[in-house]
Amino acid sequence: MGKVAAQIKVMPQSPEVDLDALQERLEQSLPEGAKINGFERDDVAFGLVALLPTVVVPDEAGGTEAVEEAFTEVEGVESVEVGDVGRL
C-alpha cells in the first residue's frame, strides 16, 4: 500500500495565536501512521497567517480524514481545509 501527501490549510482562531506553538500542537495531534513533511505559512489578511503543513498518510480508506479531525480538535484552530493531494 502506498502513501498520500496532502497540503492542509489550518486557519488559526485569530492573529494573536502563537503559530510556533500551534505548529507544535498540530505535530503532537497526528494520528498513528501520519507524519508532517514540512510547514509553509500563508499571509491571509489583516495579520492573519495560515499554516500549511504537508501531511503524509498511508493510502487507505479515509485518506486524510483522521488528520483533519485531529487538527480540528487542536486548541487555537478555527478551520481545516485540504488543498493539494497526491500519491508518493
Automatic annotation (TrEMBL):
<dbReference type="Pfam" id="PF00736">
    <property type="entry name" value="EF1_GNE"/>
</dbReference>
<dbReference type="GO" id="GO:0003746">
    <property type="term" value="F:translation elongation factor activity"/>
</dbReference>
<keyword id="KW-0251">Elongation factor</keyword>
<comment type="similarity">
    <text>Belongs to the EF-1-beta/EF-1-delta family.</text>
</comment>
<feature type="domain" description="Translation elongation factor EF1B beta/delta subunit guanine nucleotide exchange">
    <location>
        <begin position="3"/>
        <end position="88"/>
    </location>
</feature>
<dbReference type="InterPro" id="IPR014717">
    <property type="entry name" value="Transl_elong_EF1B/ribsomal_bS6"/>
</dbReference>
<comment type="function">
    <text>Promotes the exchange of GDP for GTP in EF-1-alpha/GDP, thus allowing the regeneration of EF-1-alpha/GTP that could then be used to form the ternary complex EF-1-alpha/GTP/AAtRNA.</text>
</comment>
<dbReference type="InterPro" id="IPR036219">
    <property type="entry name" value="eEF-1beta-like_sf"/>
</dbReference>
<protein>
    <recommendedName>
        <fullName>Elongation factor 1-beta</fullName>
    </recommendedName>
</protein>
<dbReference type="InterPro" id="IPR004542">
    <property type="entry name" value="Transl_elong_EF1B_B_arc"/>
</dbReference>
<dbReference type="InterPro" id="IPR014038">
    <property type="entry name" value="EF1B_bsu/dsu_GNE"/>
</dbReference>
<keyword id="KW-0648">Protein biosynthesis</keyword>
